[in-house]
Amino acid sequence: MKKTAITSAEIAPVLAERWSPRAFDETHTLSQHEALSLLEAARWAASANNAQPWRFSLLYRGDALWQKVVAEGLTGFNQSWAPRASALLVVSIKNQTPDGRPYEIARYDAGLAVATLSIQAEELGLRTHQMAGLVHASIHSTLELADDLDVLVAVAIGKQAAAETLQGPAFEREVAPRTRLELDEIVLHGKP
């Protein structure tokens, strides 16, 4: 299934084709090459002062940590579809700068890294779906993360499957048209 973005100006095909499905192919296994390619893309994302405050935990479908994060760390709706993904990438951020101040820009920088990873996934023929519906404390404990890290999001990664592999609300969301706010609603100054 394709959901090519309808845009008012041409954008790169890899951006126009990117969307976040919930239907993942349970038979696909993320290869070492795919995993390295995704993580390298994220590593080379733009970062304020080159600080790179993101940290990644890559969990492969079926592994013990993956099973525990799926069972105890994902909230309701995400548990219905995310287990089919080949891998889950838990994104954590540093919560303080080296001098002990709150790390205000860390979320933005991590978002850039995940965006870059998502575009690389598209380039590899993979799909990603970011999830904020998490039990953060549970994931933090399961992954035994340091106190200076906060769990931010989890990203499901894998090959897309047919929408019909889903049921109920997950299927309905999968086949719904892809929408975005109009430019007039998000560009406050300097309209084209």
Short summary:
This protein has 192 residues and is of the alpha+beta class. It has helices at 13-16, 32-43, 64-73, 76-81, 106-123, 136-142, 168-175, 183-186, and strands spanning 54-60, 87-94, 127-131, 149-158.
Labels describing this entry:
192 residues, alpha+beta, NADH Oxidase, four-stranded antiparallel sheet, 8 helices, 4 strands, 36% helix, 16% strand, globular
Mean pLDDT: 95
Assembly state (oligomeric): single chain
Q: How do the strands line up in the largest sheet?
A: 1-2-4-3
* Strand runs, count: 4
Radius of gyration: 17 Å
Low-confidence blocks of residues: none
CATH hierarchy, class of the domain at 28-160: Alpha Beta
